[in-house]
Known about the structure:
CATH topology: Alpha-Beta Plaits
Helix content: 10-25%
CATH class: Alpha Beta
Low-confidence stretches: none
Strand content: 5-15%
Radius of gyration: 12 Å
Number of strands: 4
Amino acid sequence: MAMVIREDCINCGSCEPSCPNTAISAGENIYLVDRERCTECVGAFDEPQCVGACPIEGCITQDTENPESREALLARYQQLHPN
């Protein structure tokens, strides 16, 4: 599953530089996660870095409506970072 940023985002931008896949960008009112680039940091870190960078607890969560296996997330990471 990719991560998703909820509506209680304060648009501070703390999450954007923490993403190893550049999957986070500024939206009109809140930051957004590109599901095609998000791997929940699988392949880079043990846990999603955006969650720890966000000052609002519970603002960034797993997108439970689009489940993906750890293997699928790792394959995406390897495709984004072939070296």
